[in-house]
């Protein structure tokens, strides 16, 4: 029987899904990301009845599972392109007493290159690799790895859509809250989204972004300002977790703050 880690909020995951650095972090406060936890709780509690919550980069499902524990009425859509993490997510759904029908899970990356992209498999740090996944490039990379001159990081080719296509992918309608952690690609993905008509296939009313570095955080903040998103959380340097936090949207409730 596999060991289980239970967080203070009641979410349970299999311990072998976790990294040693995460276990160490949880010893201080037993939640996944200490700085983000309380803000996430406030946002979820403040959403309207039957709201649509989209998680991009769902990993093993911590935030979707927490949202479902808090709100049985939410429509929860989860994008996770790494097969291993999707499998872990499904295991954790059962572990927490839910059904897969309680979540819509998509094996799709969100990037600036809709179609197919190369995903670097780095566990929780997995991210879309720059460039297009051409057959010639994949063959060259394979040969380089064989002779010991290539990047040792495993890669796989996955389906990809733009952020502006998510509304259509989930069946249309507005998205009340979108949470995104895509390991450093947040700036170009947001830029591509804001460059297009946001109401074409479902407007995103609020966005929480995990930012990776001060320059990326500043660029994303500037985009929020330019496109009329009211900032509620602006933390480029968090004390207790690896990512910065940026959260804003249109007509945000006052309680959606840290």
Task: Name some characteristics of this structure.
258 residues, alpha/beta, Rossmann fold, 4-stranded mixed beta sheet, 8 helices, 13 strands
Helix and strand pattern: EEHHEHEHEEEEHEHEHEHEE
**Beta strand %:** 15-25%
The shape is: globular
CATH topology: Rossmann fold
The helix tally amounts to 8
Oligomerization state: single chain
Protein name: Methyltransferase FkbM domain-containing protein
InterPro entries: FkbM_mtfrase (IPR006342), SAM-dependent_MTase (IPR052514), SAM-dependent_MTases_sf (IPR029063)
Pfam families: Methyltransf_21
Domain Methyltransferase FkbM: 55-230
Please give a structural write-up.
The structure is a single chain. With 258 residues, the chain is α/β, with parallel strands linked by helices. It has a single domain, classed as 3-Layer(aba) Sandwich (Rossmann fold), CATH 3.40.50. The chain contains 8 helices and 13 strands. It has helices at 20-26, 34-46, 62-70, 83-95, 135-146, 166-169, 186-194, 214-226, and strands at residues 4-6, 12-14, 52-56, 75-79, 104-106, 108-110, 115-120, 127-128, 155-161, 177-180, 206-211, 230-235, 244-249. The strands form 3 sheets. The protein has a 7-stranded mixed β-sheet with strand order 5-4-3-10-11-13-12, sandwiched between helices. Strands 6-9-7-8 form a 4-stranded mixed β-sheet, with no helix packed on it. It has a two-stranded antiparallel ribbon with strand order 1-2. Strand 12 and strand 13 (244-249) form a beta hairpin. It starts with a strand and ends in a 9-residue tail after the last strand.
């Amino acid at each position: 029987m596999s060991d289980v880690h239970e967080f203070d909020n009641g979410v349970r995951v299999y311990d072998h899904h976790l990294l040693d650095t995460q276990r160490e972090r949880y010893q201080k406060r037993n939640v996944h990301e200490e700085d983000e936890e309380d803000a996430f709780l406030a946002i979820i509690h403040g959403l309207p009845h039957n709201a649509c919550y989209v998680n991009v980069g769902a990993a093993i499902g911590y935030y979707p599972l927490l949202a479902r524990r808090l709100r049985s009425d939410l429509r929860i859509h989860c994008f996770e392109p790494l097969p291993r993490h999707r499998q872990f997510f499904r295991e954790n759904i059962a572990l927490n007493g839910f059904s897969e029908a309680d979540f819509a899970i998509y094996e799709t990356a969100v990037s600036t290159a809709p179609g197919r992209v190369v995903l670097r498999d780095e566990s929780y740090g997995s991210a879309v690799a720059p460039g297009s996944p051409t057959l010639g490039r994949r063959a060259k990379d394979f040969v380089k790895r064989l002779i010991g001159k290539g990047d040792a990081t495993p890669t796989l080719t996955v389906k990809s859509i733009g952020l502006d296509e998510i509304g259509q992918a989930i069946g249309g309608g507005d998205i009340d809250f979108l949470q995104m952690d895509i390991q450093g690609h947040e700036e170009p993905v947001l830029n591509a989204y804001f460059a297009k008509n946001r109401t074409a296939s479902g407007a995103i009313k609020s966005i929480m972004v995990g930012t990776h570095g001060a320059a990326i955080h500043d660029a994303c903040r500037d985009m929020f300002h330019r496109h009329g998103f009211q900032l509620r959380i602006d933390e480029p340097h968090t004390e207790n977790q690896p990512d910065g936090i940026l959260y804003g949207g249109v007509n945000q409730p006052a309680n959606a703050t840290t």
